[in-house]
Amino acid sequence: MNFDFDLIVRSFPLLLMGAGVTIQISALSVSFGLLIGMFVAIARLSKLWPVKFLAGIYVDFIRGTPLLVQIFIIYFALPMILGTRIDPFIAAITACSINSGAYVAEIFRAGIQSIDKGQMEAGRSLGMTWAQTMRYIILPQAFKRIIPPLGNEFIAMLKDSSLVSVIGFEELTRRGQLIIARTYGSFEIWLTVAFIYLIMTLTISRLVDFLERRYKIDDKH
Amino acid sequence: MISIKNIHKKFGNLHVLKGINASVQEKEVVVVIGPSGSGKSTLLRCINYLEEPTEGEIIVDGIPLTNQSNINKVREEVGMVFQRFNLFPHMSVMENITLAPIQVRKMAKADAEKIALDLLVKVGLEDKARAYPEQLSGGQQQRVAIARALAMRPKIMLFDEPTSALDPEMVNEVLEVMKTLAREGMTMVVVTHEMGFAREVGDRVIFMDEGKIVEEGTPEAIFSHAHEERTKSFLSKIL
Fold it and tell me: In this structure, are residues A126 and B99 in contact, taking their beta carbons and an 8 Å threshold?
């Protein structure tokens, strides 16, 4: 077998564009996931049982089913109810955000529960409502503590986003498939794709390490 | 000012308060003493409903603690100081003190800060407005916590073992602030092991044991002429 280094060089710009799209989906999905996750985490800690129950079902359902199946449901099954096609980009972002939301919710919940309960008591004793105490006292502290696990969630999303290639969305993995379909350079291209994923995840995990250390020193502010 | 009628509190099978009746008059300083596990902290925390009594009635400043809106109203009028300070670690001293006045009383930031500065002068920490809680000693943190509670202009102050988590040399600076408050006529309920404080500042001392009020009276009556055996035996161990 001949290793075609030139193929890698020629394909690299295209793959990098795919990597850009991968980062974009992951960042958007984790951002939406953060928003979803925050509200779901609060809902799971709520005293209103229907709210708590529904939030629990959401988290269980998403974490208990494969992301690939969730993508199929949104891209193939949902249009049958809606009666209209869904754009692959919208479908990809929606599926990944809903998926990420469930994992982020658990991260958030752990973060909120790690805050000393005296903080809530102090807030309430000053006449602040539960919501005000959450917003001004509990969440800002919880948020700092969950930065490292959120970084890990971002890395997981970055890798899992390769699954949206199945609905034809052109992120890094899909780009690789397309190039191979033209050139038959399976070996060279998949290795390169793997290498690009690795560089991205390593970079992010270093960044998370850095933030973690910074917040450890700076824990209280 | 505070009226407590037949309060019971159970944690599962644990019967912590067994029918407490008590009242506190305006400007009165009531000191609650008793062995640990006697229910004194739980009783204090029932007054602002941080603990919900299993049974019984509490009325604070004419407001019965029956629904959430009343509970919030009462909490605005009742300040609380905790054993472990519970300052907000992500906020400066100034932000700790002004948060509730701004959010709850809807006070303008500048007004809230002016009040906060006056209070910091009062507790002797005017130079610490910009500091963060972790940069302060325990005694300083507790004085900030007192200022934070006072910023809401409460009618009643509750103290839950305010000096128990402090190094010995810092106890006095906190007690001094509390004495000043008492002299100014603040209505106070203080759970403490500081018998010197109880004797000097208390108008009335309540001795609790095993979820009940065993005996109450003036500091003189309790410390020098206790009637109940349990009171005498407790006092003999700690004095």
Answer: yes
Q: Which two tokens stand for residue A99?
A: 């998926």
| Closest residue by Cα to residue A13 from A219, A216, A179, A199 | A179
Residues 6 or more apart whose CB falls under 8 angstroms from that of A182 comprise: none
d(CA A169, CA B39): 64
| Contact indicator for B222, B215 with CB cutoff of 8 Å | yes
- What pLDDT, on the 0 to 100 scale, is given for residue A221? 46
B90 vs A140: CB contact, 8 Å cut-off? Answer: yes
3-state secondary structure of B25: coil
Helices (H), strands (E): how many in chain A?
11, 0
Q: Which of residues 61-90 of B touch A (CB under 8 A)?
A: 72-73, 75-76, 78-80, 82, 84, 86-90
CA dist A189 and A152 (Å) reads: 26
pLDDT band at A216 (very low <50, low <70, confident <90, very high): low
| % of chain B beyond a pLDDT of 70 | 100
pLDDT digits (tens, 9 = 90+) for A13-61: 999 999 999 999 999 999 999 999 999 999 999 888 999 999 999 999 9
Determine the Cα–Cα distance for residues B119 and B109; give it in Å rounded to an integer: 15
Among all chains, which residue has been given the structure tokens 């790690």?
A114
What is the arrangement of strands in the sheet containing B204-209, beginning at the earlier edge strand? B78-81, B156-160, B187-191, B29-33, B204-209, B212-217
Residues of A in Cβ contact (< 8 Å) with B103: 128, 132, 136
| Cβ pair B132, B179 in contact under 8 A | no
**ipTM score of the complex?**
0.91
For residue B195 the two structure tokens come to 């018998």
Q: Considering the entire predicted model, what is its pTM? A: 0.84
> Which of A54, A50, A157, A141 minimizes the C-alpha distance to A103?
A157
Is 70 exceeded by the pLDDT of residue A90?
yes
- Residues B1 and A56: their CA atoms lie apart, in Å, by 44
Sort out which chain B residues have CB atoms less than 8 A from A132's CB and list them. Answer: 103-104
Distances (CA, A) of B239 to A10, B41, B88, B196, B235: 88, 21, 35, 9, 6
